[in-house]
């Protein structure tokens, strides 16, 4: 192949056939040449030149040089990445949109770009296409994407020991507003903190079902629901205040949504179980070899889950104890998980743990087998990565029962109450022979005679709610906030 027959590499940053075709057409018209005249000078048929100007054929270097000489411009000018006019820019955008997978998936004919198609019409079509693209991408974003992002956040937490000093400092500063010294943060003190930050609290019966709370930052109001179970309203208020103090707005994607949730939950927990008071309490318990999540829960009057979370925040950083935290639904699926003690949670192919089944021999599963739910549940489990000690507790929520487990490696069990337990199991998961394969005799006995009707979770195949990544119905939220806003004047 001769030098002038070299085909230019297709690189959208350097050579775009569609853009260069528009530039050739613009220079042709600027010189007053017709399509036929340019074709004659180039030695091509008019139809071939039309194909070039429409960006449907890649040019060879020699052809590009000849065109530049005929049009009295430089090759660099023809290769410029700027559209020659606003009209050309619109036409290029429309052509590209029609060449995309989204447009081709629609039962629509190709729309010829003619002179009779006005700029306003093209802009409208492009606007509709962009909105359709946005909705398509949003609806295609399934919980798989959320789990992927959550996995990244969990890795960050593990590297940090699940301890964030900047959030601890914010919590300590906020508590100074109400002269907090020690003990549980009561509802009265939470109300005082809200007032100190300029907020008023309003309990209402018509809060949208999709929202835990709604904050009106313009009028400094926090709306809370009435009659939705026995959830601790302190946490809800503190999470709303935490979002305000951290300057959080409505999230734009899964990463932002989950990061906001991690940070606001952390800050709310740091207010309910303040670092200085909790550390004094835990340090004394460690000295006595009597560390207990139950005691931390009772000392600060919080849920077991909050106490478990808070213990995982402080244990590694201040007590030198690597730990793991696990929240599991009674069905055996993981809802939340965190670890920095090398315990191996079950994962899917993407490394996500949410929705995975916990080994039946782990403490999180075994706790459901006990009839005594008053006495703390302790267990050792021999796992492929080593032996771990765990304490587990059952709590109830709107979605049913779930277990909360906090554990650590065998060498650190000496600091905990319950270390003397004789309860011990062996888990070889993820080996199928551990608990994933039924007894051979049972399999043979019932082979071909059983057909289950599965109860699928409503969220199993569903995309995240459209319109917002928070899952809160935006129409209901705005109608609610407008209905409850104080009258002006």
Briefly, what is this?
This protein is an alpha+beta fold and 489 residues long. 45% of the residues lie in helices and 12% in strands. The protein contains 20 helices and 9 strands.
> Using only CA atoms, what is the Rg?
32 Å
Any low-confidence stretches, pLDDT <50, length ≥5?
Answer: 1-14, 458-469
Provide mean pLDDT, rounded: 85
Please give the number of β-strands: 9
Describe the structure using short key phrases.
489 residues, alpha+beta, 2 domains, 45% helix, disordered N terminus, XRE family transcriptional regulator, DNA-binding, Lambda_DNA-bd_dom_sf
Written description of the protein model:
The protein is α+β, with helices and mostly antiparallel strands and 489 residues long. The protein has two domains: 3-138, lambda repressor-like DNA-binding domains (434 Repressor (Amino-terminal Domain), Orthogonal Bundle), CATH 1.10.260.40; 146-435, no CATH class. Helix content is 45%, strand content 12%. The protein contains 20 helices and nine strands. The chain has helices spanning 17-30, 35-42, 46-53, 61-71, 75-78, 86-99, 101-104, 119-140, 143-159, 165-176, 187-196, 233-245, 254-272, 275-287, 293-300, 304-319, 363-366, 432-435, 440-446, 474-484; strands at residues 200-204, 214-216, 221-225, 324-329, 334-339, 377-383, 386-397, 400-409, 424-426. The strands form two sheets. Strands 5-4-8-7-6-9 form a six-stranded mixed beta sheet. The protein has a three-stranded mixed beta sheet with strand order 1-3-2, with helices on one face. Strand 2 and strand 3 (221-225) form a beta hairpin. Helix 1 (17-30) packs antiparallel against helix 6 (86-99), helix 2 (35-42) crosses helix 3 and helix 12 crosses helix 13. The radius of gyration is 32 Å and the shape is elongated. The termini are far apart. Residues 1-14 and 458-469 have low confidence and may be disordered.
């Amino acid at each position: 192949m001769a030098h002038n027959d070299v085909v230019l590499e297709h690189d959208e940053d350097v050579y775009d056939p569609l853009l260069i075709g528009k530039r050739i057409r613009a220079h042709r018209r600027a010189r007053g040449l017709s399509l036929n005249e340019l074709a004659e000078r180039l030695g091509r048929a008019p139809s071939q030149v039309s194909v070039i100007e429409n960006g449907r054929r890649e040019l060879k270097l020699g052809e590009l040089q000849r065109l530049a000489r005929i049009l009295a411009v430089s090759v660099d000018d023809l290769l410029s990445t700027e559209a020659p006019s606003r009209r050309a820019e619109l036409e290029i955008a429309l052509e590209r949109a029609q060449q995309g997978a989204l447009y081709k998936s629609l039962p629509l004919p190709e729309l010829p770009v003619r002179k009779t198609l006005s700029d306003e019409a093209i802009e409208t079509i492009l606007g509709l296409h962009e909105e359709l693209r946005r909705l398509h991408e949003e609806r295609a974003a399934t919980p798989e994407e959320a789990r992927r992002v959550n996995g990244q956040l969990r890795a960050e937490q593990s590297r940090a020991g699940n301890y964030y000093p900047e959030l601890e400092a914010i919590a300590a500063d906020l508590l100074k507003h109400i002269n907090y010294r020690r003990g549980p943060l009561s509802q009265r003190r939470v109300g005082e903190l809200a007032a100190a930050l300029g907020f008023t609290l309003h309990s209402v019966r018509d809060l949208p079902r999709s929202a835990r709370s709604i904050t009106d930052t313009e009028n400094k109001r926090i709306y809370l629901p009435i009659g939705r179970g026995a959830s601790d309203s302190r946490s809800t208020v503190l999470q709303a205040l935490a979002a305000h103090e951290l300057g959080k707005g409505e999230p734009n994607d899964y990463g932002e949504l989950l990061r906001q949730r991690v940070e606001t939950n952390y800050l709310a927990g740091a207010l309910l179980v303040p670092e200085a008071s909790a550390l004094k309490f835990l340090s004394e318990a460690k000295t006595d070899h009597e560390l207990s999540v139950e005691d931390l829960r009772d000392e600060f009057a919080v849920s077991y889950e909050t106490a478990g979370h808070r213990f995982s925040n402080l244990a590694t950083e201040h007590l030198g104890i690597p730990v793991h935290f696990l929240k599991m639904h009674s069905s055996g699926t993981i809802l939340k998980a965190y670890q920095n003690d090398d315990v191996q949670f079950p994962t899917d192919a993407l490394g996500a743990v949410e929705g995975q089944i916990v080994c039946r021999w782990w403490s999180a599963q075994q706790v459901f087998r006990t009839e005594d739910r008053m006495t703390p549940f302790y267990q050792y489990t021999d796992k492929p990565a080593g032996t771990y000690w765990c304490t587990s507790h059952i709590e109830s929520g709107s979605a049913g029962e779930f277990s909360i487990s906090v554990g650590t490696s065998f060498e650190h069990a000496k600091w905990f109450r319950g270390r003397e337990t004789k309860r011990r199991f062996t888990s070889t998961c993820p080996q199928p022979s551990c608990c994933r394969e039924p007894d051979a005799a049972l399999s043979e006995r019932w082979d071909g005679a059983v057909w289950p009707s599965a109860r699928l979770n409503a969220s199993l195949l569903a995309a995240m709610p459209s319109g917002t990544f928070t899952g809160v119905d935006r129409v209901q939220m705005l109608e609610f906030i407008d209905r409850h806003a104080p009258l002006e004047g």
